[in-house]
Structures are given as structure tokens and as C-alpha cells.
Amino acid sequence: MGEDRTPLRRLVVWGEALAAFVGGAVVFFAIPVRQSDVSSGYAARGVLLFLSLSVVTAILLRQARRVAHGRRPAAEQIALLLSIVDLVVVFFALLYYARAHEFTGLTTRLDALYFSVSTLCTVGYGDIVPVATWAKVLTTVQMVFDLVIVTSVLTLVLSRRPPAPPASRDVPSR
Question: Does the domain formed by 2-159 have CATH 1.10.287.70?
Fold first, then answer.
């Protein structure tokens, strides 16, 4: 357990989280979603997609295995949650991009990523709006899923707080 808190261990944990984030970004921009995506650089995109999915999967499995084995430092648990959040954002952004015709203001992958992140953060500027039924359903599913993730992070952080010392009960002397 003491070895898990070394600076090198923390560097590995956050390095893996960063690698999962970069891998998620590569997946997001490499995966063909529309017919026009397939016609340009199909073989290179396929190889890049396979490699990045393999790396992200290996990192997530490694992070989950470490967290599942006993009481791990909060940094490892938070790194795993951040990696999962990244994949959730990418997953929903890809779905939004594939159904862009059901939204107003959503035309590019970056628009879809922006909408997914603003939905996660519950900002909702109103510049991108789901107008079709399935787009509204999809957005609602992300909202519920995001609520579960935020609750998990809060539970993790609050469960790590040291307990408050008991209040002293001064009994007046007679």
C-alpha cells in the first residue's frame, strides 16, 4: 500500500488516465460515422481506430483491476472514473454526430463533442438543440448517465474524508 503512494506510482496512474484520454480523442476523430468518412483514408483510419481502441481497452482494464483489488488510493479511483467519463463523452458525441440532422446547430464532430461535454457539465447554452424525438431521448439518456457518474465521483470523494472528531461534551463541574 505504501508503494502505491510514491511519486512514480502517481505519475503512472495519471499517465494512464492521460493516455486513455488521448486514445478516446483518437477514437472519436478516427471512427467512420458517416458515408463521407468512409471514403477518405479508410485503411489508415481502420488501423488507427483498432490501435487506439486496443490501448484504451487495455488501460481501462488495468485501471479497473487495480481499483478492484483492495482499498486503493483515491487517485487511482478518480483516474478510472475520469477515463470512463472520457469514453462516455466520446460515445455520446459519436451518436450525436451520427444523428446530427436531428439537432439544430450540430454539423461537425467538434460540435458533437462540445454538445456532449456541455450536457455532461449541465451547462446547456442553447446553441445546439435536439429537435427530433430520438435526439431528445439520446440526450436524456446521457443526462441520466452523467448524473450517475457525478454521484459516483461525489461518493468517492466524500467517502475518503476523515471522520470529524467527536464533539466534546463538557459537563460543568459542581
Answer: yes
Neighbour count for residue 27 (Cβ, 10 Å): 22
Domain extents in the chain? 2-159
Grid cell listed for 99: 444523428
What is the phi/psi pair of residue 103, to 5°?
Answer: -125, 150
Cβ partners under 8 Å of residue 28, min gap 6: 90, 93, 94, 109, 113
For 89-128, how does the pLDDT look when each residue is reduced to its tens digit (9 = 90+)? 888 898 899 889 999 999 999 999 999 999 988 887 889 9
SS3 41: coil
Question: What pTM was computed for the model?
Answer: 0.73
Contacts by 7-14 with C-beta closer than 8 Å and gap 24+?
Answer: 10/75, 13/73, 13/75, 13/76, 13/79, 14/75, 14/79
Q: In a 3-state reduction of DSSP, which class is residue 118?
A: helix
The set of cell numbers assigned to 68 is 478492484
74-98 and 42-68 helices, crossing angle to 10°: 150
58 in Cβ contact with 85 (< 8 Å): no
